[in-house]
Design brief:
Helices cover 48% and strands 13% of the residues. The chain has helices spanning 14-26, 37-46, 63-73, 88-96, 109-139, 150-163, 179-188, 207-215, 232-235, 251-263, 289-294, 300-306, 323-338, 347-355, 361-375, 388-396, 408-422, 427-434, 438-447, and strands at residues 6-10, 30-34, 51-55, 78-84, 101-105, 169-172, 197-201, 240-244, 265-266, 275-276, 280-285, 309-312, 344-345, 380-381. Keywords: Activator, ATP-binding, Cytoplasm, DNA-binding, Nucleotide-binding, Phosphoprotein, Transcription, Transcription regulation, Two-component regulatory system.
């Protein structure tokens, strides 16, 4: 804990500075000193210190004023006040304003050692948390939404504008298109960035548990509720809550969430007291909620409250020009993590990536590239490093790969099946690609016993 820890001692009395510097230096800390608060601020500009140990009463700027400056400019630094017995009340007030602790003159050396050690532990924890926050912010920067295609550039432009607002957002898209990444990019590029962003998959747990997770519960409200508990809306106060798979919740829960969106208040399960919440809601679904409303499968009033701003994420097959960019991004990422020398994707493998329909979208592409780097040879990703479905796509794209003994009917059947896989089972789109009408493709599918899935 002492290795590398740095302490700045601030006192207008040279005798006190010398005593504290010697004591802390003997403990193995790096110690610097300053004769005034102004000198201390200059020292802090030149480099960071884990702890500042400062006298409370000094000529010029006081220790309390120095504390306020440090809190503003160096929030990870812990501040300990040195005070005479007559000014203990001021030191206690300083703790309310963010000081870590105080020590009284004349010093008890063991007390100084213990308080300084604890202050360093707190400072290093703050530094670690700040590092984690920076890492999270970097992970969800807009630049991590990768692609140059027109559909994804339109999405990028929309989320950049939405991030500045407080509006409720509905993100629509197939599984694996990056809905959670977009939700968190909105949060971490918004004015709420310093507050929590909590996520929950609404289809992954039972309705009873989901209600408790969202709104919290009171002690004794149900079997097993041995203590009161805050829900995500309370925990995320001032921040954002991401409700994934919102299309799967019951009508009863839709009503309760509607109340949150309208009145900005919740009630814990088993509680009567309304609690005000300030939380931005971002929801996501892979369903067509507008169609679900028309079919009376989703409440229209909740849908309209939820659907203030809609972001539709395109499937990967609808943005094929982004496949090479994404593949290279995942290649660089996983090759670095694995310490692999793989630096490129061969032409045949890239052709297979481009021909495949990607029903699992970006998530599936990422898994394919990670697998190829893990199992493949050094240097480049080859066709044989890809899973069977992608190899079949690449082979199916070459006329010389068709056995000469195949009949025209077999070739036609295989090609229709391949085009249907490419369109994800969309018959109308497959018919357009094949240059035939819907009636013809349905007739051929029936004749060849082809299922669209």
């Amino acid at each position: 804990m002492k290795d590398g820890a740095s302490i700045l001692v601030v006192d207008d009395e040279e005798r006190v500075r010398t005593l504290l510097a010697r004591l802390l230096g003997e403990e193995g800390y790096h110690v610097a000193s300053a004769a005034s608060a102004e000198e201390a601020l200059h020292e802090l500009e030149g480099g960071s210190h884990d702890v500042v140990l400062t006298d409370l009463m000094m000529p010029g700027m006081s220790g309390l004023e120095l504390l306020e400056e440090i809190r503003r400019g160096h929030p990870e630094t812990s501040v300990i006040l040195v005070t005479a017995h007559g000014t203990v009340d001021s030191a206690v007030e300083a703790m309310r304003k963010g000081a870590f602790h105080y020590v009284c003159k004349p010093f008890k050396l063991d007390e100084v050692r213990i308080i300084v050690q604890r202050a360093i532990e707190e400072s290093q924890t703050k530094h670690e948390l700040a590092g984690l926050r920076r890492e999270v912010h970097q992970r969800f920067e807009f630049s991590n939404i990768i692609g140059k295609s027109k559909p994804i550039q339109e999405v990028f432009d929309l989320i950049r504008r939405v991030a500045r607002s407080t509006s409720t957002v509905l993100i629509e898209g197939k599984s694996g298109t990056g809905k959670e990444l977009v939700a968190k990019a909105i949060h971490y590029n918004s004015p709420r960035t310093s507050r929590p962003c909590d996520a929950i998959n609404c289809s992954a747990i039972t309705e009873t548990l989901l209600e408790s997770e969202l709104f919290g519960h009171m002690k004794g409200s149900f079997t097993g509720a041995v203590a009161s508990k805050k829900g995500l809306f309370e925990e995320a106060q001032g921040g954002t809550i991401f409700l994934d798979e919102i299309g799967e919740i019951s009508a009863a829960l839709q009503v309760k969430l509607l109340r949150v969106l309208q009145d900005h208040e919740i009630r814990r399960v088993g509680g009567n007291q309304p609690l005000k919440v300030d939380v931005r809601v971002i929801a996501a679904t892979n369903r067509d909620l507008a169609e679900a409303v028309r079919q009376k499968e989703f409440r229209d009033d909740f849908y309209y409250r939820l659907n203030v701003v809609t972001i539709h994420l395109p499937s990967l097959k609808d943005r094929p020009e982004d496949i090479p960019i994404l593949a290279q991004h995942f290649l660089a990422k996983y090759a670095k993590e694995a310490g692999s020398s793989v630096t490129q994707i061969c032409k045949e493998a890239m052709r297979a990536l481009l021909q495949y329909a990607w029903p699992g979208n970006i998530r599936e592409l990422e898994n394919v590239i990670e697998r190829a780097i893990t199992l493949g040879a050094e240097g480049e990703i080859r066709v044989e490093d890809l899973p069977d479905p992608l190899r079949r796509e690449e082979e199916g794209g070459r006329l010389d790969a068709i056995p000469v003994e195949m009949s025209m009917q077999d070739v036609e059947k295989a090609h229709i099946e391949r085009v249907l896989r490419h369109t994800g089972g969309q018959v109308s789109q497959a018919a357009r690609l094949l240059g035939i009408d819907r009636r013809t493709i349905y007739r051929k599918m029936q004749a060849y016993n082809i299922r669209k899935d």
